[in-house]
Design goal:
single chain; alpha/beta; Aminopeptidase; 3-stranded antiparallel beta sheet; 30% helix; globular; disordered N terminus; binds zinc ion
Length: 346
């Protein structure tokens, strides 16, 4: 099937420039992960790369503590941006990374909203105790569907298709050892090697049909699972995961499983933990913005709670690092948290 997935009427949340508009967010949040997702998938409401850059440049003018930097270019020559909030070099630092996979966009939408909050005082005092680095939309070519391969089989309708791979059809999240691609080079040479980073959350989207304990999940999380990672780094990763789990899972709309991930160090969750001693957390949110597998794609009715899930994740983790409470987290929940499994299709 091409381009046209579902035919039901769209009553989803409107998202413009990463900002949820009006009250529909609340009802979308209320729908939660039990919502099936079978409605039109239209990419036109997603923030484009140019809109994102425009937003970031305006925020930099508005926000005294924010600094915007270009750390490199994509295959197609798009500038890759780093958003910096460095208030005190002695404070711990967290890096948030979105859209290594270009078709996983709601994490970027939520991250832009988080950036806006940092400037409006909604997160007052948070920057006193933590430095925040953000690389949004690392794979901008994939996000814009500006690639050197065919997207004919991709299912979303709208102005553009979005693809996991970069313009040269490479999976950036398998390039963290060789670093052949300009996007991964920019991240390693101009961010990971340059700053003293303690924590990182790598934000992704997974398929739409994963469940835990018989209930569809809003996402899944995992710490570094390579045996080469320092045990202390892994423990701090688990603490970071505890902060996120305790923030999201008790909400009515949040339900998290354990991601079943491998030990390859070509993946950022593992490789970056080993190479830089950074405590990493993978967060896979439910459903992609586009794909050639229909079951991976989730319609826009779910945008509200997934964007909120990102905003809350970023806010809670930055807060816990800022006030030091991250170091008192109980990590024993990891021992009982069930791995998610894929719901059998009807
Ligand atoms: Zn991904």
């Amino acid at each position: 099937m091409k381009k046209k997935l579902f035919s039901l009427t769209v009553v989803g949340t409107l998202v413009l420039g990463g900002i949820s508009v009006g009250s529909p967010t609340v009802s979308a949040v209320g729908n939660g992960p039990e919502y099936g997702g079978n409605e039109t998938v239209n990419t036109s409401i997603l923030t484009t790369y140019d809109e994102m850059v425009d937003f970031l440049e305006k925020q930099e003018v508005k926000q005294e503590q924010m600094e915007l930097e270009v750390i490199g270019q994509t295959v197609k020559g798009r500038d890759i941006h780093l958003v910096k909030y460095i208030t005190n070099p002695d404070n711990p630092t967290i890096l948030y990374l979105t859209q290594q996979h270009g078709n996983e966009q709601l994490t970027t939408e939520g991250t832009l909203e988080f950036i806006k909050h940092l400037g409006t005082g909604k997160t007052k005092g948070i920057l006193d105790g933590v430095n925040i680095l953000i690389v949004p939309m690392l794979n901008a070519d994939g996000a814009m569907g500006d690639v050197n391969f065919s997207l004919d089989d991709y299912v979303a309708s709208g102005d553009r298709n979005l693809t996991r791979y970069n313009a040269d059809e490479v999976d950036l999240n398998r390039d963290h050892v060789d670093r052949i691609q300009p996007e991964t080079q920019a991240l390693h040479n101009n961010v990971l090697s340059l700053y003293d980073i303690d924590y990182m959350i790598d934000l992704h989207h997974q398929g739409a049909q994963s469940e835990r304990d018989g209930e569809l999940v809003s996402g899944s999380i995992l710490y570094p699972t390579t045996e080469n990672a320092d045990p202390e780094v892994v423990e701090k990763s688990k603490q970071l995961g505890a902060v996120v789990f305790n923030e999201i899972d008790p909400t009515g709309w949040g339900h998290l499983g354990k991601y079943n991930g491998g030990s390859a160090e070509t993946i950022s969750r593992n490789g970056i933990a080993v190479e830089y001693g950074i405590s990493t957390l993978l967060f896979e949110m439910r459903g992609m913005s586009d794909h050639y597998y229909e079951s991976y794609v989730l319609g826009q009715k779910s945008n509200g709670y997934l964007i909120k899930q990102t905003v809350n994740t970023l806010t809670a983790s930055a807060e816990a690092i800022s006030d030091g409470s991250i170091e008192e987290q109980d990590i024993s929940f990891w021992d009982t948290l069930a791995y998610q499994n894929t719901r059998a299709s009807e």
